[in-house]
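Record passed on here:
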Amino acid sequence: MSQNNLEKQEAKLKQLNQKIKAEKNKIEQSLGKQIINSANLDYANLSNDNIKSLSKKVSEFLKEKSVDH
């Protein structure tokens, strides 16, 4: 009986982890979209190198702002 309970809890945990992962992906996509829209960037001009460079700049900016406060 305890084996069955453990299996049920494990299934619930896996389901919860999937929900967390899906929510993280949703937030990441939304954040990226908002940054692109706010900066009036053209999707056609965003290569992987551009995306990496922009994300680094945003990260550095946010780190500086968190230190300032």
